Amino acid sequence: MKALILVGGFGTRLRPLTLTLPKPLVEFGNRPMILHQIEALAAAGVTDIVLAVNYRPEIMTAALKKYEKEYNIRIEFSVETEPLGTAGPLKLAEKILGKDDTPFFVLNSDIICDFPFEQLAKFHKSHGNEGTIVVTKVEEPSKYGVVVHKPDHPSRIDRFVEKPVEFVGNRINAGIYILNPSVLQRIELRPTSIEQETFPSIVKDGQLHSFDLEGFWMDVGQPKDFLSGTCLYLSSLTKKGSKLLTSTSEPFVHGGNVMIDPSATIGKNCKIGPNVTIGPNVTIGDGVRLQRCVLLQGTKVKEHAWIKSTIVGWNSTVGRWARLENVSVLGDDVTIGDEVYCNGASVLPHKSIKQNVDAPAIIM
Amino acid sequence: MASLQVPVRGKSGGSPTTKAVILVGGPSRGTRFRPLSLDLPKPLFEVAGHPIIEHCFAAITRLPEIREVFIVGYYDEGVFRDFIKDCARNHPAISIRYLREYQALGTAGGLYHFRDAILKGRPDRFFVLNADVCCSFPLEQMLRLFEEKDAEAVILGTRVPNDSATNFGCIVSDAHSKRVLHYVEKPESHISNLINCGVYLFATEAIFPSIKSAMKRRADRPRLVSYPSSDALDRTYLPRQDRAADDDDDDGEKTEVIRLEQDILSDLADSRQFYVLETKDFWRQIKTAGSAVPANALYLMKAFQQQSDELAKPSATILPPVFIHPTAHVDPTAKLGPNVSIGPRAIIGAGVRIKEAIVLEDAEIRHDACVLYAIVGWSSRVGAWARVEGTPTPVREHSTSVVKNGVKVQSITILGKECVVGDEVRVQNCVCLPYKELKRDVANEVIM
């Protein structure tokens, strides 16, 4: 089987992290974001993956070579010379996606969930139509595009309603699809939107179905959602009793949902959790309090620091008695001085912060 | 240097007698020291391990010729009883008495009211110290200048930045002779950056007549406030209502109130041998509760420079100067200083950080908490990983407020008596009245 992952551009929404690494390689739950998708695709029997990008960082090529071997798959870059939207890249990759009659998966690279590729493929085959899109239930559908079904059919889509004022349904497009190669005939090679052009045309022919996603779903394209997504992901691991999580019998683990890389070291009298991921070679000093935060590889958190709702970028240092909160994001190699307070600080790489950041601000 | 025979004013040819008066004001005065003054009279509030008034008293005791000290104010009799008892025990050679005004008479009015007590034994001169200033009290230098110039009055002055000078009494002096040429209390426009420190030395035969004639003038006609512009002249006895609204010296309307600053010093400059000693040492007022933090820092610094054995020994976790009361318990992993005072029986937990702060009696700071630029009130409790924080202000700054998001807030965070800050809670630039529990993060607020 084949798949296309829509990676797109520079991932500016996830800056300052994406100033250092391309978004697909930023670690989510201690593994590159794209690896969650590659792994799930490979497990569902996908052998050819196309990454639709409009730039091509060398660092990504190297990383993906490794995964090709590891998962015994082929990864192809499809580089757009101009942004082609969400549908154009499919046409650009027609050679691969259309090389046989089997359907292919399409997914947005920002999505994190329990990828249900196998069930999705089975369902898609069962209805025999051109396309299936994964939908997820949301509490406030008015913020999204909502899927409305045909009155006589549980899965066949009747129409999409963009940001409905009145309740028409609570299922929204989750950014994961399976499509027959025939769909490629509906797309022109130009900047075009799959949501606004391709899908409505398939819907018109009664050929598009929805598939309900079980469990969590999150677009983690920006820091706030990256943190929320991490919480959902860790909760789902807890539910599954995953070995990836640190045992709650550890004295420093508080409230569960804690993932600590074995190479990290934890000081005495720490209180960690809930919802914390700690990457490789991270050092945590004595008396540190962590909750709802992500510490990327090589981070050093000094004694008595307090961190909440924050992403600490690679190789950054957080000073003694520092306090970080309210979606602070530290880029690569940032230093937060002793006793400094950061409220929603977004700090670019290689900066050293010596004074409080009292209100959300970007520190250039 | 050729030594000049110092002119002796002593009546009987012996060495002259000197007394001292400490002006403490009264409970209605210390409102700007709230919320701390809700539970303790300001002069008794401890900075650098000692009541504010004791720093004044200690300076007086360094002059052996002073045998008699008066505390003048309108607090209840009992307020200074224990303090006076302690002083008498530690300094048996010095007589110390509290003279209570039954109504606020003003700084000069109070002195005049108690003139019989002050003049008893016919002293030649006496110091007047305002209890609400924090400085090194260079009394001996003042005395030397007094004698050298054969002065009738000496005032202690200090330089402040030009833009804050108009908040104080301004002194114009002759740079060479040090003679005071002109004095204006809180002028509207810039006159001088040499300001009144609130410490004086007066010849008894000069000051009482000056106060008396001021009282007479007052009786003859109500006080005319000197306004620079003539359109203000018809507002005759309008007592400074357009002055800084936060100034709580609002007793200017009563005719019996005579104040040194407004009613006497200007006349002394005109008619008397009035000199200024300019101190290069530290000086600042203790008005707001927040100003106790810089005062604490200055007195600690002074004790440190004098290698006082009261201070905690510097180490990896003690950044000097730090005062720790002998009955306090400080975990060895806590890091304190600089400029920290820990009161009696306070408990400082493991991994705590305290900087530029005063922790009062029986307070507890739990493990890994952080207290910066703050005062933690008596028996208050700061939870684990909590952060109680003010904003640092420049050393030369004489204000204790900062502007945040366009709003003026207290730069020092103050927890009143028996407040509780929950675990992990952050309190920034807040003033918290007694007996409050803070369970959520707060910033830039007064918590009633």
TrEMBL record, chain A:
One GO molecular-function entry: GTP binding
Location(s) in or outside the cell: Cytoplasm
Residue span, Mannose-1-phosphate guanyltransferase C-terminal domain: 256-363
Keyword match Translocase: no
GO biological process: cell wall organization or biogenesis; GDP-mannose biosynthetic process
Keywords, comma-separated and alphabetical: Cell cycle, Cytoplasm, GTP-binding, Nucleotide-binding, Transferase
Alphabetical list of Pfam families matching this protein: GMPPB_C, NTP_transferase
Function: Involved in cell wall synthesis where it is required for glycosylation. Involved in cell cycle progression through cell-size checkpoint.
Superkingdom of source: Eukaryota
EC number assigned by the record: 2.7.7.13
Residues annotated as domain Nucleotidyl transferase: 2-233
Primary location class: cytoplasm
The protein's name: Mannose-1-phosphate guanyltransferase
Family assignment from sequence similarity: Belongs to the transferase hexapeptide repeat family.
Enzyme's top EC category: transferase
InterPro entries: GMPPB_C (IPR056729), GMPPB_N (IPR045233), Hexapep_transf_CS (IPR018357), Mannose-1P_guanyltransferase (IPR050486), NTP_transferase_dom (IPR005835), Nucleotide-diphossugar_trans (IPR029044)
Substrates-to-products reaction catalysed: alpha-D-mannose 1-phosphate + GTP + H(+) = GDP-alpha-D-mannose + diphosphate
Record's signal peptide: none
Pathway involvement of the protein, from the record: Nucleotide-sugar biosynthesis; GDP-alpha-D-mannose biosynthesis; GDP-alpha-D-mannose from alpha-D-mannose 1-phosphate (GTP route): step 1/1
A single Gene Ontology CC term: cytoplasm
TrEMBL record, chain B:
Mannose-1-phosphate guanyltransferase C-terminal domain boundaries: 319-445
CDD domains: M1P_guanylylT_A_like_N (cd06428)
UniProt keyword Transferase present: yes
Catalytic activity, EC: 2.7.7.13
Superkingdom as given in the UniProt entry: Eukaryota
Listed InterPro entries: GMPPB_C (IPR056729), Hexapep_transf_CS (IPR018357), Mannose-1P_guanyltransferase (IPR050486), NTP_transferase_dom (IPR005835), Nucleotide-diphossugar_trans (IPR029044), Trimer_LpxA-like_sf (IPR011004)
One annotated GO molecular function: GTP binding
Residue span(s) of domain Nucleotidyl transferase: 19-212
Job description of the protein: Involved in cell wall synthesis where it is required for glycosylation. Involved in cell cycle progression through cell-size checkpoint.
Name used for this protein in its record: Mannose-1-phosphate guanyltransferase
